[in-house]
Structure formats: structure tokens, C-alpha cells
């Protein structure tokens, strides 16, 4: 069990946390938060700072901001990435974190990990021109390029497969979730 | 009534424990709610056969001695085998004796049955792990036009309504039932979650042979990386047939069964399917590859390459490019959902605080440390990878009877001696 000597992921601590959550399941209840504010046009800004976890309110080291906008062909100003691209960033970041953690656990030293994500969407859905087309992605593809010491290609493939199994965003994208939106 | 040890259950594990207790002259009784091998007799489907070959079907002091070592016992054959073992062990057996409560009374256990109460200093739970079907809560959202069936009640395809069947789960149970229901002429769709793929025969030998000789079967619960995960691994996609066929997802696809993603929800009469099918299949293909590689390495290390067939790798699980993400359960195409989603033990009679928040028994390799004198046997990876198989009972029973015997000899309640 590593405290991060290999790839910088403290898997010993993760295992400790798993034990804590196993013994007191309520400790595992997290609530993630983000607050979003409209700027102008389709441009908005999301602020992320606090969340609830391990039984108490917690805060990130600092407050993070995520900007989102839409591209010029929608007559928007393209001040930032689109929300759907931010979803892709979420997926790739989650899977990559998983690759690093699993590699640490399996004592595989990573030299470089790169991923490209592509997602297909027909915008006839969001524009309402074709009610048969869904708004969201019709297909998502992630391609990894991984350079790891002394790991066979089967080992590397297993890292990526395992990272999907333990990924929150992979689960969020592949399974349905109840979403409620209310006006206060 | 008073005895040193009450063994609850006269299946193969309870009888194995009784045999070893008798060898040590430990006074005990074996209580059985029905007849010997009751679960095999009354709670399984008609076509089921053991997943392990006859040559591996052995219990302490007793082994298969028929003329078909590579065959797989049918249910009536396994009932016969365990019945012969019972006659050979000749345990202090009370059949038709249903345990309704086990509670702690000081240092003793009080075991209440429909035929009287036993007091004892130790108790062995040999009640099996597959007592009740485990059905996910989403089953309650099935539209009323769709029949909901569990393997616990399923006996044969003709019991099902005509029409399509969605089999949820692809462990041994799921693939076996999907196959026989498809052969009955019904259109079958299987919902694929985590699964363990393996060939029935590898390099000329049954896969269980390789588990045994390489030591994989003997891997201990306190040696594996992650025992929580190891214990939750679904049963391998195996079937025992005279032809020794491999029944993996590709075999089902070849027969015309359709693979879809894991059933994630049911909403407005529609089954919502996970988009994780590629990953689930990929993971089990990779895992099978590692298993076969470890067998090849073992053979090479022992210089036995010339004794067995050549190494082989199998086609990856074929998955359609864009598997469906939903299924309409109201269209009439699917008439039955069969929940091959596992079983769980029934502890409703166990009134000792040894269960966790999810109702699972807390134990250390079958030693129920929170309640001295209590033991559990016959669970997936209880003490070893082979624990849930018939031949896995022996080593576990020996370990636990050793522990139990030491417990009885060190803790003598003053008032009874």
C-alpha cells in the first residue's frame, strides 16, 4: 500500500477512508455544491467552494470559478468552453484520477497519461428542430495514451478498465439520475 | 436439552462439521428444517447441475466414486451424494426441526425450534448463503403486465408466460437460465452487469482443475488484496453439462440472445439501461486473460507444457456498437423479467447482535468474533476462494472445528461443570 511514492496518490489514506466509511456508513454521505450566476448572453460563471462530507461542512483550499459560454455560430460571444465540454472535462479528469490511483495501488509508475474525449451530438435536439433527437450526447469516446514503466499493454488496458469501474462521472454519464430543479 | 454444540443445517457443510465434531468426541446435534440437502431438494430449478466436476465432489472422509469423474451432478444426484454422506457420517440428526430463534443466555446459546429448545456453548450456522432471492428495489416499478420471477421460484421455461424474457444478471444462474429459456422458443434479452467469464475446459482440463492445482482455490481470505470485493464477486459463468460446453456471453449471442447494459432503473414502464456494457465486457475479458495467463505461467514454471494442450486466447466479448439504453416494458415484447441478481442468507431467526447495518454477518473467516462460540460456514470466500464449492467445505470445517474445540476447552462455565 502506497502513500503516494509512485504517482502521488495516497492509496493508503484512501483505504483508511474506505474503512471509516465502511464502519460508519453515514460518514460516506457527501453533498457537492456549486453556485452559478448569469453574466451576459449565454455566459455564466460557477463558483465552487464548500461541500459537505465526512459528517461536516468542508471547504476547498480556495474558491474555484468555472466559466461557461457558447460558440460564435450560436451568436454567442464564446467567452469560455460550453457546458457540454465541461462535462467532458469532468469525465476525463475523473477517469485520469482513477488511472493514477489504480496504478499507485498496482505499483505501476506512470510517465505520462493523456486522454482525448469526443462526444457526438445532433443539435437538432436542443434547437427543437427534431423532437426525435435527444438533447444530450449520442455517443462518448475516450482515448487514452499511457506511458508506464514496465507495464504490459494488458496491464495498461486493465488500469483504464478499472478506472471506469470506480469513476463517479462515468457512472453519472452512463446511468440515469433523478434531477429536480426548483425556483426559490 | 443440553449439548456442547448445535449445528444448524444438514447440507454438505453441516454434515462435514458434524463428522469432524464426532472425531473429536464433541457432543452435538445437527438440526435440519427439512430433510438432508433440503435446499438442493426444494429450492432450485430442474436443470441445475453442480458447477464442479464429479472428481472434485468430495467431503471430509468421502469422495465421488462413480464412473463419470468428468461429469456434473444433477440435483437428484447431488441430493443422493449428500444423502449417502449423511448415512456414512451418521450424525446426531434431527430433521423437520426448524430453528426459529437463536439467542444468547449468559455464556450459552439458546436454540429454539418447533421441536424443543437446546442450550449449548457453541453454535455453527451451516444454513447456506442462498436462502432468499436478492431482488433490487427497482423491481417494484415493473409494469403490472410484466411477470416478475426469481430463480428461487423458477423451475422450468414452461412455467413462464409465452413471450419475451428479460434476464437481469449474467452470473452462472443468469447465463444458464437465459440459455434454456431461449431454447424454449422465447426471445431472451440479458442485462449485463459485473460478471466473471471463464472457459469450461482450458488446455484439456476442466477450469476447476486449474484453480485447484495452481493453488488459486486455496487462496485465503486474509491473504487477498480486498476481501470485501472478493466476497462480492459473482459466481463464474459456468454450466455443468455432459458436453462440457462453455456458456459465455458470446455463446449466448451466437444462439440469438441479445445483450444489453445493466438495468439501472425503471421509469414510466421503460427499463433504463446503463451505457457501461462495453466496459463490463472488457473488464471480464481482461480478467479472464489474466487468469489464463496465470495458468500458462504455472504450467511453464512446472515444465509441463508438453503435457497439456497449447495455450489459447478467446475472442473478445462481442458487443453491438451502440447497445440500447432503454427497453419498453409495456410494448408486450417482454412478458417476464427474471431476476438472476443473486441470493442472500436469511438471518431472521438470529437474535444475537452480530449483523452489520446491511444485515450481513460480521465474522473473521467464519469465526463470529463478536459472539464467542458462534461459527459460520458455507459462504462465498468465507476462508478460501473455494469456500462456496462442495470441496471447499473440508478445509474450512477443519479450521473452524479446531477453533471451536479450543474455545470449548478453555471456556468452561462454572455453573454447568
How would you describe the overall organization of this protein?
The complex is a heterodimer of chains A (184) and B (417). In chain A, 33% of the residues lie in helices and 28% in strands. With 184 residues, chain A is α+β, with helices and mostly antiparallel strands. In chain A, strand 2 and strand 3 form a beta hairpin. In chain A, helix 2 crosses helix 4 and helix 2 crosses helix 5. The longest helix of chain A has 23 residues. Chain A starts with 10 loop residues before the first helix and ends in a 10-residue tail after the last helix. A five-stranded parallel beta sheet of chain B has the order 5-2-1-9-22, with helices on one face. A five-stranded parallel beta sheet of chain B has the order 11-20-12-13-16, with helices on one face. A three-stranded antiparallel beta sheet of chain B has the order 6-7-8, with no helix packed on it. In chain B, helix 1 packs parallel to helix 3 and helix 1 crosses helix 9. The radius of gyration of chain B is 23 Å and the shape is globular. Chains A and B meet through helix 4 and helix 5 of A and strand 17 and helix 8 of B.
Amino acid at each position: 500500500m502506497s502513500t503516494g511514492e509512485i504517482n502521488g496518490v495516497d492509496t493508503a489514506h484512501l483505504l483508511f477512508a474506505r474503512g471509516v466509511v465502511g464502519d460508519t456508513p453515514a460518514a460516506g454521505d457527501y453533498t457537492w455544491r456549486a453556485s452559478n450566476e448569469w453574466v451576459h448572453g449565454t455566459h455564466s460563471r460557477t463558483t465552487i467552494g464548500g461541500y459537505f462530507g465526512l459528517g461536516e461542512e468542508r471547504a476547498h483550499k480556495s474558491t474555484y470559478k468555472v466559466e461557461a459560454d457558447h460558440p460564435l455560430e450560436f451568436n454567442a460571444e464564446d467567452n469560455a468552453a460550453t457546458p457540454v465540454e465541461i462535462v467532458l472535462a469532468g469525465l476525463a479528469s475523473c477517469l485520469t484520477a482513477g488511472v493514477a490511483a489504480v496504478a499507485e495501488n498496482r505499483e505501476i509508475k506512470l510517465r505520462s497519461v493523456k486522454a482525448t474525449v469526443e462526444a457526438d451530438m445532433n443539435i437538432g435536439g436542443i434547437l427543437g428542430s427534431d423532437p426525435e433527437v435527444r438533447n444530450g450526447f449520442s455517443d462518448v469516446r475516450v482515448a487514452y495514451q499511457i506511458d508506464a514503466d514496465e507495464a504490459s499493454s494488458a496491464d495498461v488496458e486493465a488500469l483504464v478498465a478499472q478506472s471506469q469501474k470506480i469513476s463517479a462521472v462515468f457512472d453519472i454519464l452512463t446511468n440515469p439520475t433523478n434531477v429536480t430543479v426548483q425556483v426559490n | 436439552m443440553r449439548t456442547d454444540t448445535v449445528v444448524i443445517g444438514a447440507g454438505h457443510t453441516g454434515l462435514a462439521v458434524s463428522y469432524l465434531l464426532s472425531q473429536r468426541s464433541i457432543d452435538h446435534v445437527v438440526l435440519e428444517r427439512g430433510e438432508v440437502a433440503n435446499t438442493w431438494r426444494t429450492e432450485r430449478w430442474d436443470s441445475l447441475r453442480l458447477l464442479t466436476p464429479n472428481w472434485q465432489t468430495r467431503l471430509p472422509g468421502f469422495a465421488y466414486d462413480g464412473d463419470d469423474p468428468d461429469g456434473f451432478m444433477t440435483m437428484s444426484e447431488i441430493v443422493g451424494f449428500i444423502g449417502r454422506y449423511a448415512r456414512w457420517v451418521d450424525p446426531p440428526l434431527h430433521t423437520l426441526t426448524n430453528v426459529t430463534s437463536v439467542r444468547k443466555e449468559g455464556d450459552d446459546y439458546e436454540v429454539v425450534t418447533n421441536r424443543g429448545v437446546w442450550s449449548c456453548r457453541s453454535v455453527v450456522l451451516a444454513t447456506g448463503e442462498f436462502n432468499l432471492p436478492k431482488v433490487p428495489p427497482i423491481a417494484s416499478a415493473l409494469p403490472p403486465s410484466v411477470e416478475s420471477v426469481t430463480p428461487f421460484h423458477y423451475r422450468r421455461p414452461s412455467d413462464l408466460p409465452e413471450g419475451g424474457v428479460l434476464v437481469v444478471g449474467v452470473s452462472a444462474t443468469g447465463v444458464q437460465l437465459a440459455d434454456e429459456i431461449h431454447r424454449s422458443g422465447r426471445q431472451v434479452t440479458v442485462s449485463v452487469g459485473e460478471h466473471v467469464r471463464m472457459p469450461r475446459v482450458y488446455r484439456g482440463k476442466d477450469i476447476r482443475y486449474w484453480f485447484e492445482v495452481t493453488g488459486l482455490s486455496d487462496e485465503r481470505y486474509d491473504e487477498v488484496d480486498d476481501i470485501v470485493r472478493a466476497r462480492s464477486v459473482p459466481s463464474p459463468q459456468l454450466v455443468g453439462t455432459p458436453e462440457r460446453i462453455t456458456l459465455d456471453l458470446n455463446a449466448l449471442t451466437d444462439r440469438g440472445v441479445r445483450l444489453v447494459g445493466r438495468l439501472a432503473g425503471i421509469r414510466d414502464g421503460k427499463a433504463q439501461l446503463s451505457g457501461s456494457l462495453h466496459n463490463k465486457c472488457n473488464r471480464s475479458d481482461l480478467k479472464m486473460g489474466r487468469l489464463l495467463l496465470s495458468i500458462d505461467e504455472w504450467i511453464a514454471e512446472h515444465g509441463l507444457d508438453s503435457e497439456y494442450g497449447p495455450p489459447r486466447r478467446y475472442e473478445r466479448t462481442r458487443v453491438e456498437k451502440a447497445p440500447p439504453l432503454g427497453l419498453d416494458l409495456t410494448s408486450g415484447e417482454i412478458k417476464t423479467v427474471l431476476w438472476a441478481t443473486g441470493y442472500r442468507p436469511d438471518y431472521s431467526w438470529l437474535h444475537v447482535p452480530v449483523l452489520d447495518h446491511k444485515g450481513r454477518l460480521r465474522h473473521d473467516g467464519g469465526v463470529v468474533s463478536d459472539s464467542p462460540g458462534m461459527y459460520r460456514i458455507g459462504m462465498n470466500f468465507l476462508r478460501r476462494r473455494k469456500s462456496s464449492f462442495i470441496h471447499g467445505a473440508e478445509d474450512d470445517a477443519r479450521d473452524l472445528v479446531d477453533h471451536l474445540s479450543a474455545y470449548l476447552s478453555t471456556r468452561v462455565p462454572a455453573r454447568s461443570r
